[in-house]
Amino acid sequence: MANDILVFVEHLNGDITDATYELLATARSLAAQTGGSVDAAVIGTGASALADDLGGADRILVADTDALGAFNPQGHAEMFASLVETRQPAITLVPYTSVGMDIGNHVAATSGQPLVSYCLSVDAGDGLSGTCQLYSGKVQADVQVEADRAVFAMLAGAASADDGRSGGAAVIENVDTAVPDLAITFIGTAEPEAGDVDITTEDILVAIGRGIESEDNIEEAQALADALGAALAASRPIIDQGWLPKTRQVGKSGLSVKPKVYLALGISGAPEHLEGMRDSSTIIAVNSDPQAPIFGVAHYGWAGDLFDFIPELTDRLEG
Amino acid sequence: MGRDVSPKIDPSAVLEHETYELDGVDISGHWNRMFEQRVIFDYDIAQLDRVTDLDGGESMGWCYQCSQCIGVCPVDMVGDYGPRKIFRKLQVGMDFFQSDDLWLCTTCGNCLRVCPKEVDMLKIMPAVRKEAVLEGQVPAELQDVFEKTARYGNPLGKNAKRRTAWTKGLDIEVPIISELDRKVDVLWWVSDYPSYHPRGMEASRSLARVLTKLGIDFAILGAEERHDGDSMLRAGEEGLFEMLAEQNIETLNKYEFDVLLTTDPHAFNAFLHEYPQRGGTYNVMHYSRFLADRIDDLGLSEEVLGTVTFHDPCYLGRQNGEYDAPRDLIQALPGANFVEMWRNKQNGYCCGGGGGGMWLDGKAADHQSMRLSEKRVLEAVETGADTLCVVCPYEVSRFEDAVKSTNNDGALEVRDISELLAAAMGLSTD
Amino acid sequence: MNIAVLLRAVPDPVEELEIDGVDLDRDFLGYVLNEFDDHALEEGLLIKEETGGTVTVYALGTADEVEQMLHTALAKGADTAKMLGSDLDVVDAHGQAETFVEALTGGGFDLVLSGVQASDEIDGQVAMLVAAGLGFPHVSVVVGTKPADGSIRVTKEYWAGITADYDVALPAVLGIQTAREAPRYVAVARIRQAQESGNLEELDIDQPENGSRMTITEMRLPEEGEGAEMIEGDEEAAVDRVLELLQAAGVR
Q1: What is the pTM for the complete model shown?
Q2: Selected residues 248-307 of chain A with any CB under 8 Å from a CB in chain B
Q3: What is the 3-state secondary structure (H, E, C) of chain C?
Q4: Between A101, A109, A260, which is nearest C141 by CB?
Q5: Which of A234, B82, C103, C139 would disulfide-bridge B70, Cβ 3.0–4.6 Å?
Q6: Is B144 at the interface with chain A, CB within 8 A?
Q7: pLDDT at B134 over 90
């Protein structure tokens, strides 16, 4: 109703994404402001089973149907849009992800609501307002919505996923599962080959440079990467030596990466390397030389010995 | 792979008597066989023709496979390359326009120097590359550089306004000619790497201090300067070169100056040989010659101890004949002990940066056992030198990288001549 | 297949941005083609090479660079280029979408391609808003296409390398993330040729209205120190801090 927040539940292959829990966390704090309830709409295959994992919502709207495959850009969007139409929430939250993009724009356009994109935070204290990140994170903008209802597409990391896992009444409601006529047909999903890693799709990269000194030390770095759930990447000299395959190379003659976290170990930061990773969201550099150019582009740095750093971090992650 | 390599001897060109006796000796059959002039192999030289038909590609057809070029080709020394080999591959059907071989030549010119038939790679490579570029067939690394240069006026893709960043906070003034609004004696064409690359910027600061101490009336263009275009031309982007030359000539013609001083031998080469026919004729000098002409005024008083060797840049030395100026300067450094590398002057060994090579290391890595710059660094180390002196902005970064990757960090320093001179003049080298 | 490609000029990421009031200081701002639109153009050209048909490129004349963007598209192989207006003020995503929808309506296009997103789309993604305006089905984050008769099979990228395939009935709009191949190179000489042959159509339009229904109340650059925030102390202190940072980044 007028004060409610409706959250789109993003799920794939039986898992609800962390992005959804972040949305629920945001929704809970908004509900505290508006006095409304938090509704979560879970649509598609396995929706009923997923409802059990949505403790952060007050009402869980379940549209369990296999007719849409794992996800259907049109089907899910239209079904969600009709829920927005019937429920008339004040605030609709979608994740700023591949899935969310199909949903958010369609819902906003068909329901005639403004869509606040690239959103970092939402406030319902004085009308609807938010803070957005523009121009590849170079600029932040505060916006005031000129309507009393709006859709917000939230960036990853906008809230803490843990805060969205519980705190709601979690009442399940089955809703209409009539699937609209679709111009889009789901064919199938494909997982990446279990061959070598595609570093451009990794969230965390542990990147090593000349500071690693010898091929024997790569094992240690790999152990750290494993503990982090990260992939090992490297600057050109490591690849040239043949210590890692070319698919791991970051830089001008290698790949460009934009992970959430780029841990640069023993990399001096030559312009050719920086070119390949400077857009990473968080760059943490370790280099024994405090003047190393990498510190000019890193967000955080430690001018110490990476052979002290790596085992310490690995132990703490494993322990 | 299907190529028929059996000798094809036209039977009508074989003269042989079934039985023959000469002076009592039986030389029947094959013992008296003689061959008339005949074709041994019949090649379809369509691929060779595609090259020789190009404006600039004619000399490729003159090769008679003597192999002098292979002996001096820097790429062959770490790989399998050279004009004779390219000729042979063309002869047996290689599509040069689609081959990686098109992108490995650094246009160093050593082959031309020794070629008895004057097969000119300096004309052939750009001509073939031009066609490949027009078809959009460019290695990805180079494509990126072309696009950056077209958009930002420099291959590093840096903002034009940051060209003067190296002059900020300096203890001396580096005037920008548009602000001076008068004639200057020397307009210093700084070039891209000396403006944007950290080590290049250090060399520029040293040179600015040297010029100031000498009392030279100089200025720079600042943000108006764009890439000279020479390397783009050698790499096949003739349209880009024309565009840059147009823009640069328009800029230069706004100002009055006696000498156009270049840091970069490639820019030196362009201004000397390519710009005049496009309407830009200037009295261009390379800074090594400019300083060497004023060697007595430099006031080299501080000792610069150590053993120094020198790398001849291809575009200053072999291609434009300047070998002495840098040597005079090095030998004037108090306390410095100068040693030559084995491959010096006309036979200097290319650092790998020319002809677009600066931006083709990824491609080169697929075909070479080590980078040319690494080979050269090993040669420098062999001389026992602790300092490798350079006068071309591509080289500082290439050689410093190579020093590290050949595990000579600490054994060999790479210094621009400006840095050595500044030190000898008691000036700061930050 | 008759394809329309929508190009946007966005502030050049290489620039150091400055704020003027509640907008960027655009006085000396350089603009470039939105990189995802470059991929959309490439995918469009590849589909044309596969199926025949035409590629028509549209752009709003909101920056000096737009003309060159369109000439470059022609040099790469687009058949027609249309600049909507010239010397326009910057428009929000809704305003852009409305303008494109008007230009595309009745054009008989089977496929409309644009980049999946642009750096200034504070009020939604133009590609998807255009789809809603045209009433066409749409898929975002497309990394590959395979045209068929009356439909197109698209590959949509999710995360961690997972993709899904869909058959989409035409006409449709696709928000392209990456083309099948890297955007092709076109020699400067060819772009100059395109400029001289003057194949660019300039269509007169009124300054489009913004339709976001939100007001920017403040714009700012995030706090920036001089390079990295250096962590003091020994490796334990360093690891303490790094673990915090990993959590804040949402990866732990």
Answers
A1: 0.83
A2: 252-254, 270-271, 293
A3: CEEEEEECEEECCCCCCCEECCEECCCCCCEEECHHHHHHHHHHHHHHHHHCCEEEEEEECCCCHHHHHHHHHHHHCCCEEEEECCCCCCCCHHHHHHHHHHHHCCCCCCEEEEECCCCCCCCCCHHHHHHHHHCCCEEEEEEEEEECCCEEEEEEECCCCCEEEEEEECCEEEEECCCCCCCCCCCHHHHHHHHHHCCEEEECCCCCCCCCCEEEEEEECCCCCCCCEECCCCHHHHHHHHHHHHHHCCCC
A4: A101
A5: B82
A6: yes
A7: yes
